[in-house]
């Protein structure tokens, strides 16, 4: 079976753009990693993850030697990518180079993909609760403005599949990490003094605050936790699970 992945509708009109979020279908991994696990830092074998990567790249028309990735640390560091490679400590990438494919790994956190058609610039963000509290999406958009003269009003963005707000219960210690103005619109207080964190809306609001129009933003309607046949979920699977990849890049036609 070929790898299955989601292509955001907002990017489909651009023939030179490759953007997708993988599912868990179409690979060779077994057990809790079945089957298209793309997380090299899981306990799956490196050989299977490598084969899964090759399969996805072949299906999407990507040269696997042109990938930009990082060991993500739930921070807010952004790499302006000039060359392919595997880095450490970055949770977002931006580039205006052709044939560089920015890759983010997730399994409940939210992947965010950004495209500036005028300057042919791209961004990819790993937005978990820590990065979202640190406004990593806003910082990435600002970095694209600074480095590539991107205009947020012209950018298109995709908020990929993550854990939905009706499932993602967090404690007061996490809620306090969010700025008060964000907390009021993204955290819903429960009777047992817990909060249901809506990371998708947090990052949607950061895009709006940065100047990207709502009409330019697409949001996945899936849930990584609930849609177990399609996606990995760190919380659902108690940490023993695979990873999806979300990637974006402009290719030379």
How many domains, in number, for the residues?
A: 1
Overall mean confidence score, pLDDT = 95
Write the CATH fold name: CNF1/YfiH-like putative cysteine hydrolases
Tell me the number of strands.
Answer: 15
> Alpha-carbon distance between the termini?
27 Å
Which CATH top level class fits? Answer: Alpha Beta
Largest sheet: 6 strands, mixed
Polypeptide structure, described:
With 253 residues, this protein is an alpha/beta fold. The protein has a single domain (5-250), classed as CNF1/YfiH-like putative cysteine hydrolases (4-Layer Sandwich). Helix content is 22%, strand content 26%. It contains six helices and 15 strands. A six-stranded mixed beta sheet has the order 1-2-15-7-3-5, with no helix packed on it. Strands 4-6-9-8-10-14 form a six-stranded mixed beta sheet. A three-stranded antiparallel beta sheet has the order 11-13-12. β12 (187-189) and β13 (195-197) form a beta hairpin. The longest helix has 15 residues, at 46-60. It starts with a strand and ends with a strand. The relative contact order is 0.20.
